[in-house]
Write a structure and sequence with these properties.
Layout lengths: L14 E8 L9 E10 L2 E11 L8 H7 L3 H4 L5 H12 L3 E4 L2 H14 L9 E3 H8 L8 H8 L9 H21 L5 H9 L2 H9 L20 H4 L2 H4 L6 E3 L4 H11 L3 E5 L12 E4 H11 L18 E3 L4 H11 L3 E5 L5 E6 L4 H4 L16 H9 L1 H10 L4 H29 L9 E5 L1 H5 L10 E5 L7 H20 L16 E3 H14 L5 H7 L3 E5 L1 H17 L1 H9 L19 E3 H19 L7 H10 L5 H28 L6 E3 L5 H14 L2 H8 L3
Parallel strand pairs: 1-4, 4-5, 6-7, 9-10, 13-14
Antiparallel strand pairs: 1-2, 2-3, 7-8, 10-11, 12-13, 12-15, 16-17
Helix pairs in contact: 5-7, 6-7, 16-20, 17-18, 17-27, 18-20, 21-23, 24-25, 25-26, 25-27, 25-29, 26-27
């Protein structure tokens, strides 16, 4: 088990809830009489994973202490001393984060016991439930364990026994997680930083001789990755066209074909043709043949391959990065993957041999966990691995825009899986199957492939038919709510602007969506334009692609046909002046909003000009390169925006990585003091140049 980092989500953190019973309440003198602990995993108490042990302290138990916890001298006869107990406890908890109520006391007495027994002591990473509750609800009359349990509706049992109090503290911690999310405290680092800000509470603990209950977040040891797996996509590695045989062909014929073509697998379908839905196919591999021959002998040679082809066929998208294919093979313990296009059509095959050089090289740190997550906690655990991968990829000098594409891939996968889980939940709760075909869309930066580490939810739902507030619409409203709740719990917060399928403005039938587009284009009110632009960045992640394609085609065709609409979109690019009267950058708490003053002008200009000039690309880079190819705008200006786009994404990702591990809430603001002076100058020059973008767009609107 890898140790937790500041990026570890609280909801997916592996922890041990701890409590001790002692000879007294003076941490400088108390001896441990009992240790109790219980495991916490993915936001749930694991009652089967518990630890309870009496400890012979080697001295008499004061009667006053016995009256509280009921432990007497007679009960300690024959019990292990602290040295033996400590060894067993460390074996039980491992590197897990310790959680407890007023845990600074427990840490202090443990440290003292280690010192008395001449045992090495390293302060474990820990969280104090009392401090977390103070962060979540500072207005409680007090933050005792009993008060917290009553507030959160936690059942209390075994009070003043080490295990009973550990279980209660663990349940309180789990119940605090949604309360902390509402305070924007989601990760271990953010929790630690929030607790460290409670200076008065910490000082009271220090005066009582307690240990510091939490540690200051630190950046973990650097881990390298194989950049090849993050630079190349499956489509460039696969074998194509795939070799397909009919289900009726014999094993003998299949073996002869594999030998002749020097391949290790064949795809099998009734039609025996490629370019059909992946669901139509099975697969036969060299290993399948050997197993069947071993079991049935030569008689197996005359069997039709369709009788032992493996189904369903595991697949990966051609546009996915290679790391996704590696993770899927590892998860499913297979050596071959079908490759499909975005519509689900078979286009190739990928084998372990194709990826051998990647498997033999450095770590592939992003696995396939998202695709089989069963809930928000598992999604959160998968999402949390991104920070370390991004840090490593930037160190490998991979283009920051490619890194943003990888983040976007994970965000889309998160949204796709959350949609699947939401649909399963709808059926489990008796709401039935979807009432018609539908698609879940990711909008904005996620749709463009330019997400960073501070995304919120920009999603929408389009369905085949149904009126607003009708039966179908209400079904998809509930689906959108479950989708949004799952993503929020998993670490992708609700969109502050309400751009989510749960809200009526971003949900509707295809006809409803087309009517919206017509109203946007014809009326073009400023209020309409606040969110309309990101709809032009849509990317389907789940459901029926035909619905998404129809909406995209209609929106682009109408936007392109109405010059006034594109012109008004261009006028939205103007932002507040980022410079002071003396010419310096206007900062807030020492930080500059890179998204507002840098990325937004570039992204909006590329999108607006792409709509106006009929360019149907999604990413900012592809849009700008297409404009250059059409000779729209000066090549020097466009290339400067391309370079600036990459530079700004890199600056922001570097800052976000620092913030993630420091427990600072990740945002779109960059601390100028943390940037080298040369880059500060480059940033200032770029931001000043971008002030002319609105005028440039106006000039190029009718070029």
């Amino acid at each position: 088990m890898k140790p937790a980092t500041g990026a570890t989500p609280l909801i997916s953190m592996a922890a041990t809830a701890l409590d001790t019973e002692t000879t007294g309440l003076d941490a400088t003198k108390a001896r441990i009489l009992q240790i109790g602990a219980v495991g916490i995993w993915h936001g749930k108490i694991k009652p089967e994973r518990r630890f309870e042990l009496l400890v012979d302290a080697g001295e008499a138990v004061p009667p006053a202490a016995s009256r509280i916890h009921g432990i007497t001298d007679d009960q300690l006869v024959g019990q292990p001393d602290f040295t033996a107990a400590w060894d067993r406890f460390q074996h039980f908890t491992g590197p897990r984060v310790l959680v407890g109520h007023s845990i600074g006391f427990d840490l202090a007495v443990m440290e003292r016991e280690c010192r008395l027994a001449n045992l090495p002591w390293t302060k474990p990473r820990a969280l104090c439930v009392r401090l977390l509750a103070t962060v979540a609800n500072p207005n409680l009359a007090d933050h005792s364990l009993d008060t917290l349990a009553a507030w959160l509706g936690v059942e209390v049992a075994g009070r003043h026994t080490a295990l009973g109090d550990a279980i209660t503290a663990g349940k309180v911690f789990v119940s605090l997680l949604p309360e902390l999310r509402r305070r924007n405290v989601r990760t271990l680092g953010e929790a630690e930083l929030a607790c460290l800000a409670l200076s008065r509470d910490l000082e009271a603990g220090h005066r009582a001789g307690w240990s510091e209950p939490v540690s200051r977040p630190q950046t973990p040891v650097f881990q390298s990755v194989d950049p090849y797996a993050y630079r190349h996509r499956v489509g460039s590695l696969m074998s194509h066209p795939p070799v397909v045989v009919t289900s009726g062909q014999t094993m003998r014929q299949a073996i002869e074909l594999m030998v002749t073509r020097k391949i290790s697998s064949l795809l099998v379908s009734d039609a025996g043709e490629p370019n059909r839905p992946v669901a139509d196919y099975g697969i036969v591999t060299e290993r399948d043949v050997m197993r069947r021959l071993s079991g049935s002998g030569a008689d197996a040679l005359d069997l039709p391959v369709g009788t032992f082809a493996s189904r369903p066929l595991a697949a990966v998208r051609a546009t996915a990065f290679a790391y996704r294919a590696i993770g899927r093979m590892d998860r499913l313990k297979i050596r071959h993957l079908a490759v499909r296009d975005d519509a689900g059509t078979l286009v190739g095959v990928l084998s372990a041999r194709d990826l051998l050089r990647l498997r033999a090289s450095e770590a592939i740190n992003l696995d396939d966990q998202i695709e089989h997550a069963t809930g928000a906690a598992e999604l959160a655990a998968a999402w949390a691995t991104l920070a370390g991968v991004v840090r490593s990829l930037l160190a490998e000098t991979i283009d920051p825009r490619v890194v943003a594409e990888i983040i976007s891939e994970e965000l889309r996968a998160m949204t796709r899986r959350a949609a699947v889980l939401a649909e399963l939940a709808m059926q489990a709760q008796g709401h039935g199957a979807p009432p018609c075909r539908y698609a879940v869309l990711v909008l904005g930066s996620g749709g463009r492939g330019e997400s960073l580490l501070a995304p919120d939810q920009d999603n929408a739902i389009v369905f085949e038919r149904g009126e607003p507030d009708g039966r179908q619409d209400l079904w998809f409203k509930m689906l959108g709510e479950k989708l949004a709740d799952t993503l929020d719990a998993a670490g992708v917060p609700y969109c502050k602007g309400g751009v989510m399928g749960r809200n009526a403005a971003f949900r509707g039938s295809l006809e409803t969506w087309k009517n919206r587009v017509e109203e946007w284009v014809r009326r073009s009110r400023p209020d309409d334009l606040l969110n309309v632009d990101i709809v032009y960045d849509l990317k389907p992640v789940h459901g029926d692609l035909a619905l998404s394609d129809a909406l995209f085609d209609h929106a682009y065709a109408r936007g392109h046909a109405e010059p006034v609409f594109a012109k008004l979109l261009g006028e939205q690019i103007v932002s507040d002046n980022p410079f002071t009267l003396l010419g310096g950058l206007r900062l807030h708490d020492g930080r500059l909003d890179i998204k507002m003053h840098g990325l937004f002008p570039i992204v909006a200009a590329a999108r607006t000009l792409a709509i106006r000039h009929g360019i149907r690309a999604l990413s900012t880079r592809d849009r700008l390169e297409a404009l250059i190819a059409l000779d729209v705008g000066g090549e020097q200006d466009m290339k400067a925006m391309l370079a600036g786009h990459s530079f700004l994404i890199g600056l922001l990702l570097d800052q976000q990585i620092r913030d993630v591990y420091a427990g600072v809430t990740v945002s779109n603001r960059v601390d100028l003091a943390a940037i080298p002076r040369e880059q500060q100058g480059e940033l200032k020059t770029l931001v000043r140049r971008l002030q002319s973008v609105p005028g440039l767009v106006r000039d190029l609107m009718f070029a």
